[in-house]
Amino acid sequence: MTVYLHEYGKILHLSSVVADSLLYALGAFVAVQLFYYLFFFTRLAFYGKGANYGNAMPGVTVLVCAWNERENLTELIPLLDAQEYPEYEVILLDDRSDDGSEEYIRENINGWKNIRYIRINDQFNHVTPKKYALTVGMKQAKYPIALMTDADCRPASNHWITAMTSRVTEDKDIVLGFSPYFKQKGLLNWFIRCETFYAAVQYLSFTLAGMTYMGVGRNILYKRSVFFANKGFYTHKHVFGGDDDIFLNEVATSSNTTISIEEDSFVYSVPKINWKDWFRQKRRHISVSRYYKPRNKVLLGMLSAAHIGTWLLGLVTLAWGLIVKDMLLLQYLGIVFGVRWVIQWFLLITINVKLDKTVEWFSFLLMDFALFVYYLVFGFLTMTSRKPRKSWN
């Protein structure tokens, strides 16, 4: 009996040690996540909109790069040409399109008030096509402010240029906008909207904290003087992608960048409609993160690692608690995740309202788990990735 009790005591002690270890590790991961939520994301949650549309309105050049985007251009160009702004131009940079884009534009350009057309027929090995096209546009632009979007995007209103430019001041050279995807049916569209929303929460919040690391080329503004003072895309001209995030990693400072989250400043995008195209697009986007500054890599890596660790430790703790029937452990697990979700839901719902309710609030829990799987899969692929396919899409 004494031996039996001794062995039973060892089992209880081991179970207690395992339970304590799991809770301490889980608590550490959750603490890291909550630090990001409370230190960074609260800045966006309580950020006041209130852009002053009465500010001085400098001339703006809108740059749109397009490769075989005829169908999208037929919808986008009228929206850009109808912008209510005193002095602006739109430069369409057609990169070797062979889908009838050139014919469509040349046939209709005389009927548009603010549209200029530049056909690009050259391609060079030392620079990627889009960066070359944007550089040409920067050099040809008439105005001091450059505002970028893509052919598959749609401004939310005729005051898009006004809303973005209203944030420009003598000290603020760069303005980051928000570009959600159109809401459609299906799991892929839901997840695209979730991932885009959460990415925006991060880069907009980090910018408000003076730690800008990226923006999205679908909706970004900066003074042309910033572009030329930093030699444009010179240091990464050979890297496919990064015309928005790598460039910002180099030129953004703690004081020269701000955000615009007015409803008028939103630019909606057409999402991918099949998993293969989306997967290829995300691999390309993620592949450029290797060029980020070390500080950005560490901050983003810790956030995604904490997300993965929280769910992995949570699931392991749940399984262990059920196996050994440790109800106290399961109660602690419920408390930890409960506190996390309350804080998470409050801040994300508040931000979601500001960002046009991009994601249905009742799906935040499912989004949280889906992002865990996303980080797990793409984290592994990033470590074992080959060079991404070099295409516009």
From TrEMBL:
InterPro entries: Glyco_trans_2-like, Nucleotide-diphossugar_trans. Belongs to the glycosyltransferase 2 family. Keywords: Glycosyltransferase, Membrane, Transferase, Transmembrane, Transmembrane helix. It comes from Dyadobacter jiangsuensis. It comes from the Bacteria. The lineage of its organism: Bacteria, Pseudomonadati, Bacteroidota, Cytophagia, Cytophagales. Pfam families: Glycos_transf_2. Residues 61-227 form the Glycosyltransferase 2-like domain. PANTHER family: POLY-BETA-1,6-N-ACETYL-D-GLUCOSAMINE SYNTHASE (PTHR43630:SF1). GO terms for molecular function: glycosyltransferase activity. This is Cellulose synthase/poly-beta-1,6-N-acetylglucosamine synthase-like glycosyltransferase. Signal peptide: none annotated. The chain crosses the membrane at residues 22-40, 298-323, 329-349, 361-383.
